[in-house]
Amino acid sequence: MAKIVLLLFLFLIPRAMADFQAGCTAYEAGKFAEALKEFKTEAGVHISAELAYNLGCTELKLKQPGHAALWFQRALLLEPGHKESAQNLRYLKKSLALVNFDVTTMDLVAKLAPLETWRALTWISFWIVMLCASVIFFLRTKRLWHWVSLLVLAIVAGGISLAAWVTRSNQIKPQEISIVVDEEGASAVNVPAGTADTVIAINAGSQVRRLETRGEWTYVELPGDNATRGWVRTATLEPLWPFQVPPAA
To answer: Each residue of 38-48: pLDDT tens digit?
Structure first.
């Protein structure tokens, strides 16, 4: 079995690299439809931030900004520090008036450790605070500066870990996010019916949070303080992650 896996690995990797090089060659020659086909063929075998970025750039050349925004966001999901994808996404967000779920500093801090770690650190800090407070209260001597210092540090650490715990608990998972890929955008309506009233129009490339899917309709939540909700046609959405790469036309 191990030999079979190794043989498949040795076969697929050179094949994927060939697809990538073929895509780059086609892109440089201005054959963007061909480049998209080659890049998508490789993405079906192996995906990386660089490949997702190339797919985004190719979609832009083919005047598909919604699909381009999708691939740039996937690149940043794979590699949060991918500067070129972040730069292109900022451009698209400004030019197309995209709406995305904002990533705060606390979101980045919370992602540094699993939820269970933040929970454990919060409880450890809590018991250290209780211990220090008890010692300070019952001993009542002048030589308590080290206990006071430990108490302050435990309070600060506990506050940070508690905030990270709460933030991590409420973070929207990538698996819950979809991107509007219909280049004409999408309309969120109040009920899942073609004759329903429009709640809000959503530009291509924007993020939504999937809450429920009923066949050709999906109930979503939009970014923003108001957390506007509505039904959009499922066909206008593409999951951010995980995903299956459709073949290029």
So the answer is: 999 888 888 89
The answer to pTM > 0.85 is no
Q: Which 3 state secondary structure label does DSSP give 95?
A: helix
Q: Rounded to whole angstroms, how far apart are CA atoms 94 and 91?
A: 5
Cα angle for residues 92, 95, 97 (degrees, 5° grid): 90
Determine if residue 244 is left, alpha or beta; phi over 0 gives left, psi from -120 to 50 gives alpha, anything else beta. beta
Q: How far apart are CA 46 and CA 160, in angstroms?
A: 37
Q: Which amino acid is at 164?
A: A
Alpha-helix residue ranges (DSSP H) falling in 83-144: 83-96, 105-110, 115-139
What tens digit of pLDDT does each residue of 159-197 get?
Answer: 999 999 999 898 888 899 999 999 999 999 999 998 889
Reduced to 3 states, what is the DSSP secondary structure of residue 62?
Answer: coil
> CA dihedral in degrees (180, 87, 97, 102; nearest 10)?
80
Per the DSSP assignment, residues forming a β-bridge with 188 are 200
